[in-house]
Design a protein that fits this description.
The protein is of the alpha+beta class. The protein has five helices and 14 strands. It has helices at 2-49, 74-85, 129-139, 207-220, 273-276; strands at residues 68-71, 88-90, 97-101, 104-108, 113-118, 144-152, 155-164, 167-179, 182-189, 196-197, 228-239, 245-256, 260-264, 270-271.
């Protein structure tokens, strides 16, 4: 009987201990949430004090990605050419790879540029040109998002950005061109191979730090804006000249009431849009 009572007391003590630990964990969780919310409000207030208005939900509070890399592969380029053109012949000269087929030709360059031209004969008129363009890019293994389209005379052009890890690579812009509603060419910049962790072990700065750096960079360069209208998290593609390896650098594209800026999420420095945006 005494042993049974002692056992019940021990169980009761353990339950009370677990309850105390749970309450402690919940308290710490809510303290962390309150501190996080206070940090966000202070960051927005800091921008406002420096004459820049922004809505809190326009700021990407999730941490930006780290530096990634890809590696060019001649085998991958040949596979892509065969996927699109069928039976091919190698017509490569110099540093560019070029393949010819019955459906057309494709050329790949070391900096990620490519040019795909189709023979009009044998090409169908699609019912939905945009959907048809996306399907062709999917054959390349590209995950893309459409950014614009325009029609001038008999030519229709769709512009896409390639995605990496679900966010846009601002330098990988791909144009799909139709002539008389028939697919004519696909050209632009692409990621050369699978995205993988880079040998450069550099992590991105935190969101509050990036916004402080943005204000500092604006003042240092004597730029001016009074409103941040949108911040898009993404990458720019830094090709290594003749090297087969290229890096993906995490950036923010910050749209203001004056112009659009690129902020390097690793260094906190403003990047030249003329250098990166084709």
């Amino acid at each position: 009987m005494e042993r049974s009572k002692l056992k019940n007391i021990i169980i009761l003590l353990l339950l009370m201990l677990n309850l105390c630990l749970l309450l402690l964990a919940v308290g710490r969780y809510w303290q962390g949430k309150e501190a996080e919310e206070q940090l966000r409000q202070n960051t927005v207030l800091f921008l406002q004090k420096n004459g820049i208005s922004v809505l809190e939900d326009q700021i990407p509070w999730d941490e930006p990605g780290s530096v990634q890399m890809t590696e060019r592969s001649s085998q991958e380029e040949r596979r892509l050419a065969e996927t699109i053109l069928g039976t091919i012949s190698d017509n490569s000269t110099g540093i560019a790879s070029e393949y010819l087929g019955e459906k057309g030709s494709v050329r790949f360059y070391p900096d990620g540029r490519f040019y795909l031209s189709f023979q009009e004969k044998g090409m169908d008129k699609p019912v939905d040109m945009e959907h048809y363009a996306e399907r062709y890019l999917q054959k390349f293994g590209f995950e893309v998002v459409k950014v614009s389209s325009e029609t001038e005379g008999e030519q229709t052009k769709f512009v896409f950005l390639q995605l990496a890890e679900g966010v846009p690579v601002f330098t990988c812009k791909i144009e799909v061109v139709y002539q008389k509603e028939i697919l004519s060419q696909i050209q632009g910049w692409r990621l050369q191979g699978e995205v993988q962790p880079s040998n450069i072990q550099q992590e991105s700065l935190t969101t509050p730090t990036l916004l402080v750096r943005f204000v500092s960079e604006m003042k240092q360069n004597e730029f001016f804006c009074s409103e941040i209208r949108n911040i898009t998290q993404g990458y720019v593609y830094s090709t290594g000249g003749l090297s087969s390896q290229s890096n993906l650098l995490p950036v923010w594209r910050i749209e203001t009431d004056q112009k659009t800026y690129l902020l390097n999420c690793v260094t906190g420095k403003l990047e030249s849009t003329d250098q990166w945006l084709h």
